[in-house]
């Protein structure tokens, strides 16, 4: 196994009407960037950030640059992305992110 890709649903937190759960894609590719994960949002938004940040943020508030991650209650986690276009705030079931992280640690780069 090389790249890890997991589809998930997250709640997009917004001031406008509640859009409900939105589809997201969690990605990890040890061949291209073994220290980073990617979250692809609807509308061609893609964020790449440290896998360690995601892991730390599931236990306690953590941030790096334009990305913040923190636990929200006992079963939720929030990932917040800041850009020139505004802020995207996603609320996940923490177990979804934990399952994804576990899969990233079993992925191995393809040896050529």
Strand and helix layout:
Elements: E1 4-13, E2 21-28, E3 36-41, E4 45-50, H1 51-57, E5 62-64, E6 67-72, E7 76-83, E8 86-93, H2 94-106
Antiparallel strand pairs: 1-2, 1-8, 2-3, 3-4, 5-6, 6-7, 7-8
Short recap of the structure:
It contains two helices and eight strands. The protein has 112 residues and is of the alpha+beta class.
Radius of gyration (CA) equals 14 Å
What count of helical segments does DSSP give? Answer: 2
Tell me the overall shape: globular
Reported CATH architecture: Roll
Order of H and E elements: EEEEHEEEEH
Q: Runs with pLDDT <50, length 5+?
A: none
In the sheet with the most strands, the strands line up as 4-3-2-1-8-7-6-5
Q: Indicate the percent of residues in helices.
A: 10-25%
Query: Structural class of the helix and strand makeup?
Result: alpha+beta
CATH class: Mainly Beta
Oligomer: single chain
**The CATH topology:** Transcriptional Co-activator pc4, Chain A
Number of domains: 1
What is the number of beta strands?
Answer: 8
Mean pLDDT: 89
Polypeptide structure, described:
There is one protein chain. The protein has one domain (4-106): Transcriptional Co-activator pc4, Chain A. The two termini are 14 Å apart. It is globular. β5 and β6 form a beta hairpin. The longest helix is centred in the last third of the chain and has 13 residues, at 94-106. The chain contains 2 helices and 8 strands; from the N terminus they run ββββαββββα. The protein has an 8-stranded antiparallel β-sheet with strand order 4-3-2-1-8-7-6-5, sandwiched between helices. 18% of the residues are buried. It is an alpha+beta fold and 112 residues long.
